Amino acid sequence: MKALLVIDVQKSIVNFKDFTDELSKIEHIMKDFKKNSEPIIFMRHVDDVKDSPLYRHSEGSELYSPLKHYADHIVEKTTPSSFYQTDLSNLLEKLGVNHVYITGFNTEFCCLFTAISGFDRGYDVTFIEDATGTVNDENTYEMKGLDIRDFVGTALHWSNTIEVLEFDEYLEEYHV
Fold first, then answer.
1. What angle is formed at CA 150 by the lines to CA 146 and CA 153, rounded to 5 degrees?
2. What are the residues whose beta carbons fall under 8 Å from the beta carbon of 168, sequence distance 6 or more?
3. CA atoms of 3 and 37, how far apart (whole Å)
4. Which domains does the chain carry?
């Protein structure tokens, strides 16, 4: 069975810049999973540092309201990996999931770490590159011309262990 992981679609991240395109793709994929009665699991990153935008008790750490109703399950995490010190593996096992799809934020941290951790735990992993987004850019990393999503997607693709798709490829292969 497949499950969709929707990583860190939270108010402080979504409101950081215009993520309209990414959110639209994520919602489209969620609708496909709902049609197939396949689980949608939202990951919620929380910090215990009060001045963090993802402070556990802040409005910024809340799931993005227009999409949170799609969540069948919500798993809280405190590191970039959705698997590390969470109940995600147990939940996936209970649901009979053997294939996870990765969408959400931030591409080069939580989405990347979760994809690799999922593979390490024996799951088939599909990373939908342009259904991820990041608050960072080429200036953050002082690397002129860096396309973070493309870089991460290419590295994962070249690993020959994680399937990497663009949204259009997802539609061709998996859309109902």
1. 135
2. none
3. 10
4. 2-174 (3.40.50.850)
Rounded to the nearest integer, the mean pLDDT of the chain is 96
Whether the predicted model's global pTM rises above the 0.90 cut? yes
Residue where the block lists tokens 């294939």? 99
Q: What is the pLDDT of residues 80-93, one digit of tens each?
A: 999 999 999 999 99
> Which letter does DSSP use for residue 10 in this model?
B
Spatial CB neighbours of 41, under 8 Å, sequence gap ≥ 6: 3, 4, 5, 6, 71, 72, 73, 74, 75, 88, 91, 92
- Residue 56: burial class (beta carbons within 10 Å; 0-12, 13-18, 19+): middle
Name the band, by pLDDT with cuts 50, 70 and 90, for residue 176.
low
Token pair listed for 7:
């990583």
Residue with tokens 């969709």, as numbered in its chain: 4
**Are 125 and 102 a contacting pair, CB within 8 Å?**
yes
Q: What is the Cβ-side half-sphere exposure of residue 142, based on CA atoms within 13 angstroms?
A: 0
CA distance 67 to 87: 22
